[in-house]
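Onboarding guide, step 5: your first structure request.
Type a short instruction followed by the sequence, for example:

Predict the 3D structure of this protein.
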Amino acid sequence: MMIEANELTFAYGGRPPSVAALTFSVAEGEIFGFLGPSGAGKSTTQKILIRLLRGYRGDLRVMGRPVKSWGPDYFERVGVCFELPGNYRKLTAIENLRFFASFFRTPTLAPEEVLEWVGLRADADKRVEQFSKGMQTRLNLARSLINRPTLLFLDEPTSGLDPGNARIVRDLIRRERDRGTTVFLTTHDMHVADELCDTVGFLVNGRLARVGAPSALRLEHSSRLVEIRSGVAGALRSDRFSLEGLAANPLFQKLIAEKRIESIHSLEPSLEDVFMRVTGERLA
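The system replies with structure tokens like these:
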């Protein structure tokens, strides 16, 4: 396993725990999504994993070693992309990447190549102060990839991006997974999670309510119905049928025989629907 957490608990000062008794594991080469509303404990968990927060209770291991036992060599092998931009505004995009690449003892990627990946190659010599928020978000991602990390932490990676650039980022995350990188992603965007994640954990009030594959969670809560639209001369009607005995249903057979079916859709719930059913909470 890439990450193993057992009874992970953390509290700020004397306040109630921000995360309480979290037990989960992340396999090598998968995209694992921590999903929940603001304040659920997603960022706290990620900060513990990247060693920004200490003083937690429980057992936490990354790459086979207790997180507490890692030294500076930990950051040679991980990449971190925060939601808020953290680049030097007076430097250009390529100057930022060259500067951050200089921190690593191990070989890094060519900054031009990584900028190409995130669609910023043409803006390499532009100062970051001239960048939009979406461009800065993509530069954050480029920075997190410069050392070819084994483990990549992403916090709301598509936040503030237009649909085209969000697609570039999602495709890049999948490509990193396919080359063997483990991705730990925190988000409240269920569409992003459903499209990207191999496994998700529902986090509410610092506790894990459920862990599983998005497709399996949707099927588990499916009503096993299909909606069929049919009609002639542009007049459409919708009918719902149970999947049980569908092939023998007289109306369904009639629609097939008359070649009147325009579309068939299964009525699986969305991942957000499943989240609300499991947790009783809405995303915000």
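Each response can be followed by summary notes, for example: Residues 60 and 142 are 28 Å apart (CA to CA).
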